Amino acid sequence: MKLLLDTHILLWLIYSPDKLPSHWLSALKNPDNQLYVSHLSYWEIALKYSLGKLTLKGATPEDIPTLAQRMGITSLGSSAQVLASIHQSPLIEGHKDPFDRALIWTAIYEQLTLVSHDQKMNDYHTLGLSLLK
Predict the structure, then answer these.
(1) What pLDDT does 96 receive?
(2) What is the pTM of this model?
């Protein structure tokens, strides 16, 4: 299975794996599954860090890609086609976060299963979003 990690899932996996449900942790540690993190997540981390909305224990945002790589997580750049076609993903009422929308559309477009604890993501199932349950 190809799994795209939401930003908070990446941070939980690095700093607080105990926050992850055990069946998710099993899926994330399963060597048969491929783990991906979007470059957009690194941007989100850097932005929240610079605004003081995120603290990283003993690290800076520049360290996170290396930590992810050491965990076997592949960084996924967003293609121009994915970014240019985000407008095809309709706004779901009450969910305007641009990072979430970009990750959702990336998962749909690239046929990846999104791993997110955000309950609002369930509303995108009808649009083709596959979520780890």
Answers:
(1) 77
(2) 0.93
